[in-house]
Amino acid sequence: EWGEEDTRFLYGAFNALSLLGLLHLVDVDKAVEHIAACANFDGGYGVSPGAEYHAGQIFTCVAALTIAGRQDLIDKERLGRWLSERQIAGGGLNGRPEKKEDVCYSWWVLSSLEMIGKTHWINKSQLAAFILRCQDMEKGGISDRPGNMVDVWHTVFGIAGLSLLKYPGLQPVNEVYCMPKSTISRIFGR
């Protein structure tokens, strides 16, 4: 109605509607067609056709396609290569080339790799070590990079990333919904 065509809204709608069992209320095929039109030459997805992309944006498109049961449209080899190249020397992940690592991409990149079956393309132990270096051992919480101020955003995505890495003591998190797998099992009965 207001001209917004950002694929992040598609993921938000697919996420909520699928959890409520109401995905049938939207034209899934038309939404999937739009996401497919947002694919770029090396496997990524923009907010609209031809738009720049980054790892967070890619997550929303891959997760929406996963919810829609249309992973067949994803070029998993190209996308997996681009996503795995997000790991830099310090073990952390960045959202696009030439950017610094950031703990939030421990979720955005790793969950996308998990959805397409390519987590083995990164060094998981180096990523876990990077996330743990971003902890504030006195006050608690996780920051974007070692030594920076902690915040809720990076704490949530750092813990979610550690869960995907199967870090001891954490509940397994679902890579599409960012919630415990046990909760997803209760909702969907699987």
Quick description:
With 190 residues, the protein is mainly alpha-helical.
Protein topology:
Blueprint: H1 7-19, H2 28-37, H3 55-67, H4 76-84, H5 105-115, H6 124-133, H7 152-164, H8 181-188
Helix pairs in contact: 1-3, 3-5, 5-7
Task: Characterise the protein shown here.
This protein has 190 residues and is mainly alpha-helical. The protein is 46% helix and 0% strand. It contains 8 helices and no strands. Helix 3 (55-67) packs parallel to helix 5 (105-115) and helix 5 runs parallel beside helix 7 (152-164). The longest helix has 13 residues, at 7-19. The model has no long low-confidence stretch (mean pLDDT 94).
Order of helices and strands: HHHHHHHH
**How many helices does DSSP assign?**
8
What distance lies between the first and last C-alpha atoms, to the nearest angstrom? 36 Å
Query: What's the β-strand tally?
Result: 0
Strand content: under 5%
Give the overall silhouette: globular
What structural class is derived from the secondary structure elements? mainly alpha
Low-confidence stretches: none
Binned, the helix content reads 40-55%
The rounded Rg comes to 16 Å
Average of the residue pLDDT scores: 94
What composes the largest sheet?
A: none
